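Researcher: Structure prediction, please.
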Amino acid sequence: HEISGLRFLGSDSSVVSTGNRELIQDLDALPFPARDLVDIDAYRDAWIKKHGYWSLSTINTRGCPYGCSWCQKAVFGKKYRSRSAENSAREMKLIKDAYAPDQIRVVDDITGVRRNWVLEWRDAVLQNDAIIPFECLTRVNLVDGEIIHALKEMGCKKIYFGAESGSQKVLDAMDKGIKVEEIYQAARLCKEAGIETYFFMMIAYPQEDFEDIKLSVKMLRDTVPDTFSTTIAYPLPGTKFYEQVRDRMMFDSEWTIDWDYTAENKLLFEREKYSTLFYRWVVRWLHREWKSQKLKEEPGSIFKKLRNACELIIVRFLVYILAYTPMKSKIRFRPAEGR
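Model: Predicted structure follows.
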């Protein structure tokens, strides 16, 4: 009862709330993670077996001040808090000297919300001899030539961007707060600096039409990120997106979405125009279009390029057929086997 931030059952089985706990403001006061309690040898071996390299993680900030309509902020919320640049650099130095991983992953929701902090971070990393390869996630509207150069100087090798769509109409519907032109610019700046890019793409968002999907295809062909992934939009409770499609959710109870289905990009609410099968082939289409551009940049066998070209023609044909084929019945959610 004396600890804020708890919810538990009282003696009469009712839920007791002790109120919200105050957020920690001085993140520098927290000790570094107790990595000495981890079996580092086993951890490293598992990483290398799976990926061919191994990585440790660090986090510099908490919270994200942006308001993408599909994003659930249940962990850190929107209030943005940050460690000092010096504190972050000291942890990077410790990781580098004590464990020497091949890279580290900065797991902030967003890196670089405060521009000056990034520049201070760069200076602190250089002064502490803490340069180590790392990857991070940021937004296309937060990077410019100076920021990209600063990240490169301190070891950044890959940046993950929430590009989501090549259509401004869809980005606006998502409350993404970015411009398509900024996606193009971020990709160009990273290529010039020799930093790899990873795009998160999302399809099937409400209001998206076939023409919007074509714009996403065009963006992938034009920017050619080093890697990307595609998610079929699904609603998380507590988000604006969830409220928008609440009356079209495809299950009976209030919240019984099967997470195996969300991870597999199953459609979880009724669409007005397109079928599940259509979006399945759209995912293949995006990847084939991207791969066709990647193959142009890489030396490879003629057979490999011809095979991809043939597959691309087939995928395009099926997507166009499905795009203009009216749905005969509503899409229905089906629980995974055994549920």
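Model: The two ends are 37 Å apart (CA to CA).
Researcher: Thanks, that helps.
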